[in-house]
Amino acid sequence: MSTNLKGLAVLLIIAGLATAASADAVPKQAAWKLPDSKDVRKQVFAWLDGRGLDAATRAKAEKLFPANQENLAGAELLSRVVQTIALGDERARKLVDLCSQAPSSRPPEQSWLKDPKLPAVVAQNLRLCYGVWLVQASLYDESLEQLAGLEPGRVADPASLLFYQGVVYHQLLNKDAGLKAIRELLEEPEQSPRRYAAVAKLMQEDLHQLQEDSLDHIARRMDDIRRRLGLGRGDQKVRTVEDGVIKSLDKLIKDLEDQQRRQQQASSGGSSQSSKPAPDSRILELKGPGEVTKKEVGHKDGWGNLPPKQREDAMQQIGREFPSHYRDVIEQYFRKLAGENSGQDR
Length: 346
Description:
- The protein is an all-alpha fold and 346 residues long.
- α7 (140-147) packs across α8, α8 runs parallel beside α10 and α9 runs antiparallel to α10 (194-209).
- It is 65% helix and 0% strand.
- The chain folds into two domains: 37-210; 211-261 and 311-328, no CATH class.
- The protein is elongated, with a radius of gyration of 32 Å.
- The longest helix is centred in the last third of the chain and has 36 residues, at 236-271.
- It has helices at residues 3-25, 37-49, 55-64, 74-86, 90-99, 120-136, 140-147, 158-171, 175-186, 194-209, 215-230, 236-271, 308-321, 324-345.
């Protein structure tokens, strides 16, 4: 290597090391951080002052959320915020009272929370409080309506926001959105309760392994249908989920039937072949009748269904490869299919 090339190589190495060192020197920017409780209080009381509260109500607010209060964070800060807001708005008071009660499957409409005229400190914190309560009632769709679009930097408890967003997306099997919320939460583990981080890691691993149209995915959607029906939800959304489950089961059963059929064809083809090759010097005699055995492949309904014995073989294969409760799912599907076919026969 020439002297010039060696010098150039040395300069490049030095430049690379310098770049790496400068990158390490730059502190990593936090994905989110806990808000300063005094700043949050200032925003809340600025809104209260514009409500024209009487002296007695103002005194209640000062007692509930004193200016000299130290080290407020997380759920405790969120609680002080929403209770203070409730002193200045009757709708907020009713909502906070609702969230202090046992979860209900029929919560009242709260569309006013999305009024663009409502200050962010009021709307975002009340929606977070309400969304968490809805999760506790297993009302994940309703909770998502409140939690979607909220920003960690604009609520009093960003860790709870990201955690419950992750819970909702996990329950609704929204893999990409769930992983995004969980990843953002885990980027700042020191800023959130330990239980949040522990559960979030479990949800993250679970979502990573979730495969669309797998038996696990189908079983979870069936559980979601049961949850919705248990809450008295029988709307179009439920029917859409049900239709999706049936399509996934159809695809899964067809794949199993095709696999079983290929295995049988390979087995029958292998047993009919001679293990001894024909001699090269001998001309083989053609003794067969030259006819093709006709196969009945069916017409329209029922085409492609396996005979009972082969179907049982497929079920045994499922039992070997998957947990036992998945077998129940497929058996239910077969019973439903049998009922539909018998109805068509009549």
